[in-house]
Amino acid sequence: MLDAATHIAAGGDIVWITLDSLRHDVAVAAHAAGQTPNLAALLGPDGWQRRHSPGSFTLPAHQAFLTGFLPDPPGAFRPPRMFAGSFAGAVGVRPGTFVFEEPSLPGALAARGYRTACFGGVGFFSGRGAFGRIIPDLFGEWYWSPATGPQSSISTAALADTVCAWYADLATDRPVFALINVATTHTPTHLHLPDARRDTVASQAAALAYSDQELGRVLAALRRPTLLVICSDHGDCFGEDGYHGHGVAHPHVWTVPYWEGILP
Ligand SMILES: [Zn+2]
């Protein structure tokens, strides 16, 4: 577990990148096949960690994350947590856990001088309708357009343009907390596989490979030090055991790729 409390006390940036719906097995296979060189440069030889998400679709998964419940190692009993909202019965608090009284992590960080922003991604980040604002409303700023949404074939490029422009204009006097939701790996992923008509493991891998090409400049734009988490919010089923999509308790949905580190 990284020492988030010390990092925040020192005013270090925090960035979370959620590769929406990305399955653990797809991420691991793409890493092993060399299809994600920009992510691989960050992940190192150990690659992705295998973790379990607390949510089976975008809204509950991100609500859990943003109250301090990030994906946990499988089988761990009350594993240490980097972030923890304070409440009776809170578990996993260790030296280095950032414990907050506010109802959300962005709110807690804003109260400590952070500029908070979310970028991208799927419909729950769109700002459209009451449910499209639940997550964005937790942040001081949010940036979404159809080009960054899941129906766009250039979603990661548009997202990277937005994030990089934001970083280029960033004043140096405040730390930032940014949540970047990559819609590209969310259905429909067959947009990224020529001649594909439906979403499969192969089309999600193709979507991830495309995303990696654009994520390189996002990673390069981050300031140092940044406490960086990259994970998916949940996985997806492509017909296994008769299940399709997410929002269902299935190993391919609750098992997610995860990486954390502090960029020096
Ligand atoms: Zn999602």
Keywords:
264 residues, 11 strands, 7-stranded mixed beta sheet, binds zinc ion, alpha/beta, two-stranded parallel sheet, Alkaline Phosphatase, subunit A, globular
Topology:
Layout: H1 4-9, E1 13-19, H2 24-32, H3 37-43, E2 49-52, H4 58-65, E3 83-85, E4 98-100, H5 105-111, E5 115-120, E6 141-143, H6 155-168, E7 176-182, H7 201-221, E8 226-231, E9 237-238, E10 244-245, H8 251-254, E11 255-263
Parallel strand pairs: 1-7, 1-8, 3-4, 5-6, 5-7
Antiparallel strand pairs: 2-11, 8-11, 9-10
Helix pairs in contact: 2-7, 6-7
Description:
The structure is a single chain. α6 (155-168) packs parallel to α7. This protein is an alpha/beta fold and 264 residues long. It has a 7-stranded mixed sheet, sandwiched between helices. The protein has one domain (4-263): Alkaline Phosphatase, subunit A (3-Layer(aba) Sandwich). The protein has helices at residues 4-9, 24-32, 37-43, 58-65, 105-111, 155-168, 201-221, 251-254; strands at residues 13-19, 49-52, 83-85, 98-100, 115-120, 141-143, 176-182, 226-231, 237-238, 244-245, 255-263. The protein contains 8 helices and 11 strands. The model has no long low-confidence stretch (mean pLDDT 96). A hairpin with a 5-residue loop joins β9 (237-238) and β10. Bound molecules: zinc ion. Zinc ion is lined by residues 20-21, 57-58, 122, 186, 233-234.
Ligand types: zinc ion
Q: What's the number of structural domains?
A: 1
Low-confidence stretches: none
Gyration radius (Cα, Å) is 17 Å
**H/E element order:** HEHHEHEEHEEHEHEEEHE
Q: Work out the helix count.
A: 8
* Widest sheet: strand ordering: 2-11-8-1-7-5-6
CATH superfamily membership = Alkaline Phosphatase, subunit A
Give the assembly state of these chains. single chain
**Biggest sheet descriptor:** 7 strands, mixed
Strand content: 15-25%
The chain-level structural class is alpha/beta
CATH topology: Alkaline Phosphatase, subunit A
| CATH architecture type | 3-Layer(aba) Sandwich
